[in-house]
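Project standup — Tuesday

K.O.: blocked on the structure for the chain from last sprint. Re-posting the sequence here as requested.
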Amino acid sequence: MTPTQFMEAYQRCRREGEQYCKSKGFNCCFLRPWYVLGPGHWWPALLLPLYAAAELIPGLRAKTRAFALVTIRQMIVALYAAIEQDPLPLRIVEIKNIRQNRI
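H.V.: unblocked you, prediction finished:
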């Protein structure tokens, strides 16, 4: 399986899981990182200069932000914050909010 196929499978599985939880009426909080940097998964950090350059190009800015990297620390903080908050019928936490610790 290629990385692209793996990510497509992951996205499909995540989408199906979210749809299932919504269809059951569960109180849900979905964290939606693109890629989490952490032990054994640091190679995408090599792309950070490209991310910075793409942020400067107006036509690429939105896509760059949609595929931004988050650290494992940011994810742990976001997961903890999501657990500590009162349940809502639906909460979706995108990359920007994970990175800025706004859950």
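K.O.: great, moving the ticket to review. The longest strand covers residues 28-31. The chain has five helices and four strands.
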